Amino acid sequence: MKKLYILLFGALLMLTACADDSGVEEAADNGESAEENEGEHINFSLLSLPSSLDPHAANDGYSLYVMTNIYETLVKLNQDLELEPGLAESYEQIEETTWEFVLRDGITFHDGSEFNAEVVKANLDRVRDAEVGAPLEFLFTEISEVEIIDDRTVHIHTAEPFAALPAHLAHPGGHMISKEVIDEDYAQMEEGGDPLTEVHRNPVGTGFFKFDEIVEGDQVTLVRNEEYWGEPANPAGVTFKTVPEDATRIAELSTGDADLIYPVNPGDVEQIDGTDGTYVEQNESANMTYMGFNTEVEPFDDPDVRRAIAMAIDKEAIINEMLEGIPAVATTPLNPTVNGYSENIEPIEHDIEAARELLEEAGHGDGFSAEIVVNDRTNADIATFIQGELSELGIDLEINQMESGAYQEYTANGSHDVFMGSWGTVTLDADYGLYPMFHSDNMGAPGNRTRYANEEVDAMLDEARTETDEEARLQLYEDAQQIIVDEAPLVPVYHSVLLAGLNEDLSGYYQYPSSFPYLKDLEK
């Protein structure tokens, strides 16, 4: 069930749902020229389309880049990276295990239905419903009950004290979906249909953009929500177009067919910056790029084999020779922007001779063959570099580059040996950077694609979730990270710098460290 949203994407692509009149018709109604309104539409070329438009179903970046414009959360991160009320007017912890949320009044969904306490309960109950099987359930497992106090007041009860609850509610998994569509999803489940289908087909939120249409295998278009409860978006709409090839995205940017492209390969920064009318916007991230092992298959079920490979990888060389020296070396799973990052972790140092000796002791002195799966050009380049380094140990890596959706399913199902991956700690809190990635409850699509299982680490991450003393909580995360680094289910390679290509006539762009682009203020 948890992988169903990927399989259903093809069905969504075959549908076209018009949620509003075209931007040109709106311009005529408002007395504006078609040319003026057309100039406000933003064309955004991405490497891949969303795997789902259901916030409870998808946790891949490309889905979240689109959904964060359709839906909103009770709590949000502002551009100073501070938590503040979103759809909630206020929130506070009134008891150790009870949080009170007072909701804003007068907010409606894109379908005209009301946002209220009943909606909040329906959303948080659905994402935790085992029958639905939402991959984002792990974010909210500490919630024991959602209690409606009145139409605008909700009490969220947790099984134990849970300091990270507001940060988790700010994650896109906490996006509020129209209850009308949730009810439709449950209705078709009762008739024998699959869960995570109707919201995916008909995404209805409260956001400053609303869903307009999807063109099979090509693009998703959103239009401005003219009834938005806050300040309306500047653009008349945004079209997210899938352009898998880096060179094609760059060409579209240079000709003006795209106003904005993401991601940009570090090797292309100089070209884009050197082209008249285009430049690369660089922003700090909360991301970590890594090489992950499937710890359930031989020989990667042996920590010594994994450590030997970690020793053989020269991260400095990768960054300087492959990535133009732009990212920072990663020694731990957490980016320095994340609360819980520690400089006290002892990393596995680069030492090819020690790697050779350790591999010999593990019984693989003659090496072995394995597949490494990648999903874009940057990771393919890094895999090629690592392939050369590991050949010195007799390890033959076969590189398999896959389309993003196929890659997500392949690695979620555990079909891989080795893979290049990345993780963005969206909440900027260590719980989200470690719990989904390394807790044994979260194998597959929720985040643990290395299929790593360690009872001591599980216990530490569970305890940290309910620890109310911040110093003690951070110590648990530090201790857990040291075990993870020592056992090497993955090799942290680098902490990204977010690289987006923009036309110089585009202003108002902002990208969160989570990598989510904020498109509301764009102007051109």
Automatic annotation (TrEMBL):
<keyword id="KW-0813">Transport</keyword>
<dbReference type="InterPro" id="IPR039424">
    <property type="entry name" value="SBP_5"/>
</dbReference>
<protein>
    <submittedName>
        <fullName>Peptide/nickel transport system substrate-binding protein</fullName>
    </submittedName>
</protein>
<dbReference type="Pfam" id="PF00496">
    <property type="entry name" value="SBP_bac_5"/>
</dbReference>
<dbReference type="InterPro" id="IPR030678">
    <property type="entry name" value="Peptide/Ni-bd"/>
</dbReference>
<keyword id="KW-0732">Signal</keyword>
<dbReference type="GO" id="GO:0043190">
    <property type="term" value="C:ATP-binding cassette (ABC) transporter complex"/>
</dbReference>
<dbReference type="GO" id="GO:0042597">
    <property type="term" value="C:periplasmic space"/>
</dbReference>
<dbReference type="GO" id="GO:0015833">
    <property type="term" value="P:peptide transport"/>
</dbReference>
<comment type="similarity">
    <text>Belongs to the bacterial solute-binding protein 5 family.</text>
</comment>
<dbReference type="InterPro" id="IPR000914">
    <property type="entry name" value="SBP_5_dom"/>
</dbReference>
<feature type="domain" description="Solute-binding protein family 5">
    <location>
        <begin position="82"/>
        <end position="444"/>
    </location>
</feature>
<dbReference type="GO" id="GO:1904680">
    <property type="term" value="F:peptide transmembrane transporter activity"/>
</dbReference>
<feature type="signal peptide">
    <location>
        <begin position="1"/>
        <end position="19"/>
    </location>
</feature>
